[in-house]
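Escalated from tier 1: tryptophan holo job.
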Amino acid sequence: MARVLSGIQPTGEMHLGNYLGALRTWAVEQYENDAFYCIVDLHAITVDFDPAQLASRTIDAAASLLAAGLDPAQCTIFVQSHVHEHSELAWILQCAATMGELSRMTQFKQKGTTTESVRVGLFAYPVLQAADILLYDADRVPVGDDQRQHLELARELSRRFNARYGDTFVIPEATVPPIGARVMDLQNPTSKMSKSSRSELGTIMMLDDPAQIARKLRRAVTDSGSEVTYDPAEKPGVSNLLELLAAATGSVPADLASGYHSYGALKNAAAEAITELLRPVRERFAELSGDPGEIRRLLSDGATRAGGVAAATLSRARDAIGLLAP
Ligand code: TRP
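Tier 2 regenerated the structure:
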């Protein structure tokens, strides 16, 4: 079985883009692979964060993964900071990465402000991500399109380390899910759906109820004209609705277009399909969040399993660079 690893930040409630682009794929992959899914709390502290909320958000993230269908009997779910090898390998890899290559990371350039005040942790973020991946000998890393460059860095650091110090790490491959990889904002369909969207109406949350979903779709921005056609360049709003409907029903956006004769009908169909898609997720989340003690127990099991794999890899890396064994 192939080893798969991916990670998600515990930054509050997940949205439909997280679900379609990540969690739903993870749930499928857990059956065909040896899968590790990591809640990356150490990545969440690279920008401003609220210490009073970090722990509860981490529990909520775990509840979201479980609600989305991840089964601890099929995959390993754990919290990054519970496995201290992540920080240790990140340091070792920082001693292989260069300022030049990290400066070229587009996500850093977007998030970072001035070199004077930017946190070193934000700069080193992709190296910690590489450590997350390499520690588990991951063959494949399912990620969104925006993470391709970070994956390229992980591959490069793996190759470089192996060439310099001897074969130690697997060279991981990125896999970007074909459907739902790019869920766009309903109010601004040329940019990606995200929590930081200007309008709350633009983002469907994973736990929205049917009335909220219907309202957001009714108000979704469409394009000039009235014909339903799939044309992301000329009709980004309508095309996004078709993509959502297709992702929710397992069909192809272009094939769906001819079935709708008005924007209103398309919006209704999309609202209905997304409501049904998210209904079981919302119900499971409500059940799970009543028992945070059980979630913590599952995370503790996950950390034990993950820690076993991580410790073996870290020890290989330590030996390769000649650190004295303790
Ligand atoms: N940077 C990723 C994101 O923002 C999250 C992440 C951290 C990750 N570590 C990872 C993804 C390891 C895949 C593998 O989406």
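The mean pLDDT is 94.
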